[in-house]
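User: I'll paste a sequence; please echo it back and then give the predicted structure.

Assistant: Echoing your sequence first, then the prediction.
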Amino acid sequence: MKLLKANNKWAALAGPGGFNDPDMLEVGVKRAAEFGPMMTRSEQLSHFALWALMKSPLLIGADIRADHGFHQWELDILLDEEIIAVNQ
């Protein structure tokens, strides 16, 4: 939520040639033990929706290969047309 609040002051400047970039989009990211557990499904959906609302670049920061543990529900989040439409 800190990133959302900090990024909000720049929202009016987002557009062609300049986009807000709060940090890495973490849908599907498997975390190492020192960084804590992977986000839940609800947390990942919320995370993706917030990045879309902030008009941030929706660049996938995870290894999306199934043999690396990427789940179908994570792919479904990344392909959600309604959320993507908010961002575009």
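Helices lie at 2-8, 41-53, 72-78, 81-87. Residues 41-53 form the longest helix (13 residues).
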